[in-house]
Amino acid sequence: MVDVSLPTKWLLRVIAVGYVFFLVAWPIGLIVQQTFASGLGNLSDALGDEQVVGALQLTLMVAFWAVVINLVFGVGISLLLVRFEFPGKRVLSALIDLPLSVSPVVVGLALLLVYNGRDGWIGPAAESRGFQIIFDSPGMVMATCFVALPLVIREVVPVLHEIGDDQEQAARSLGASTRQTFWRITLPSIKWAVVYGVVLSLARSLGEFGAVKIVSGNITGQTQTATLVVEAKYQNFQQSTAYATSFLLILVSVACLVVVAFLRPKRAH
Amino acid sequence: MTSALIGATTDVARPASPEGRRPRRARRTTPRNTLTPGAGLGLGVAMIWFSLLVLIPLSAVIAAAGSGGWSRYLSVLRNDQTWAAVQLTVGQSLLVTLVNIVIGTVIAWVLVRDQFWGKRLLDVIIDVPFALPTIVAGLVLLSLYGPNSPLGVHWAFTENAVALALAFVTLPFVVRTVQPVLEELEADVEEAAASLGASRATIVRRIILPSLAPAIAAGAALSFARAISEYGSLVLLSGNRPFETEVVSVRVLTFIENGNTESAAALASVMLFVALVVIVALDLVQRRVARRG
Fold first, then answer.
1. Cβ–Cβ below 8 Å for A257 and B128
2. How confident is the model at residue A2 (pLDDT cuts 50, 70, 90)?
3. Distance (Å, rounded) from C-alpha B193 to C-alpha B210?
4. Which residue has the higher pLDDT, B69 or A234?
5. Do B59 and B114 reside in the same domain of the chain?
6. Radius of gyration, alpha carbons of chain A
7. Which sign, positive or negative, has the C-alpha torsion A73, A74, A79, A85?
8. Does residue A267 belong to the interface with chain B, where contact is any CB pair within 8 Å?
9. Cα–Cα distance for residue pair B248/B1, rounded to 1 Å
10. Is residue B210 part of a domain?
């Protein structure tokens, strides 16, 4: 391996650390500082605000369902894509990645066009059966599912490839049923990839903003999630509440990152 | 977080490990369809959900965009305000992508080849923009580059703010695609070149950069795609001033809020098209890399 000269080394180091410091570390530090500028007051004010608490509960509920749906769907699709052959598999595996590249605003628009109760493709039929999707939690769960869709699959598919299916075949030849093979052989070996995917999906789901803003209608106290409350509070000049809510969101996303950082070495060895 | 960020997930162009490759080759001789009844049912259910969630809604966007024909497209794009938004978005995205190519490669280099106190922390911070809610990203940047900036710069509501927000949210992409490739790079070739008298600059230029190029290209494509579709981080930071700091996503949202869904769909379908082009380009790059590797 070629060593760079000492001045170059320091130059590169300073550029890298400086860029990340000014772009990410310092701004986040400032928000934390502003949250605690008057002790714990801002945080307890925010947690006493009904609008914020309601939004946090709604966010948790939406994120929970989105993660559960993506978990089941993701593990299922990964198994199908890796262990089976079927016509159209290549197309499906390419399409699975699409949601990561679609703008959240376009996601919102797409769901709105199909599921709105007035002139959507499916919306009016669903609403006449008493099932409102747009401007209600089902739509918000769908939008969140959409944006976080590929995350579990992206983690699980490479691991499934890597472990191969020798053990599964051995289990089956010894008389294990499909269900037994899945719970005793496949799932334990993809366990960490699944956890990793779930943590990533959770971070993404809690933080979704654009798509949820469109499909939820942003109704204060009813369909407002934590990220929407941050925007509303900031624009209402209740900045300390906005900072405190942001701090909570930062805390959760950094916690997710730390969990992932701890999991990764375990998986590698 | 690496694999969450880089290109195609599935088996299309993966330089598989020997164990991973063996069963796949064996399966080539079996019929194209190996679904068991249970798996077939699972695939059916999964496809229904995937269609309801992704395929039908995205088709609805295309259908709504196509309902007005070409004239609708042209009139939407010819609108001065929309055109200004498109120019701003593409221009700033290209700029940010360029910055990411340079800085991202430098950061990846430092993370792999350098050793210093706090490197592990830097490694974790790189992922923060990916995990942070976008609206919070905007708020966070506002604290350092907004009206009450301790630095004394007031970039909020200017074009710089747009670039700043885009640079923040796209920071991980180039770093995380280049880093693993740099880690795998064999030292022999570099040492051979050095022993034959090549200078450090020559080695970087002739040996290291060419082998990183596909990864840099993939990271750049991802960061460009993310930049042109960005919305959340710009809401608070850029002020969304027409002709000045309004980006395409905001324009689409304005159309939606005004009930003009056809125009929104027309502009959205252009964005979808760009996303599709990026995905195809990434797939091609990765296939080339796989063939070489």
1. yes
2. low
3. 14
4. A234
5. no
6. 22
7. positive
8. no
9. 28
10. yes
pLDDT in tens, B188-232: 888 888 888 888 888 888 888 888 888 898 899 889 988 988 998
Cross-chain residue pair A2–B54, CB shorter than 8 Å:
no
What pLDDT score was predicted for residue B29?
53
Where are the domains positioned within chain A?
1-35, 41-268
- Residue B4's pLDDT band, with cuts at 50, 70 and 90, is very low
Tell me the residue range of the domain where B46 lies: 35-66
CATH number of A41-268: 1.10.3720.10
Domain count along chain B: 2
Task: Please indicate whether residue B77 or residue A54 has the higher confidence score (pLDDT).
Answer: A54
DSSP secondary structure code for residue A21 in this structure: I
Please report the number of interchain residue pairs, chain A to chain B, with beta-carbon separation below 8 angstroms: 318
Residues B214 and B90 in one domain: yes
CA distances from A239 to A30, A229, A253, B53, B285 (A): 13, 11, 21, 36, 45
Q: What is the DSSP letter of B4?
A: H
Residues in chain B: 293
Confirm whether B15 is domain-assigned. Answer: no
Q: Least CB-CB distance to B3: which of A27, A85, A155?
A: A155
The CA–CA distances, whole Å, from A149 to A75, A90, A100, A197, B85 equal 11, 17, 8, 10, 29
pTM: predicted TM-score of the whole model, two decimal places:
0.85
**Nearest by CB: B268 against A30, A106, A114:** A106
Side chain identity at residue B152, one-letter code: G
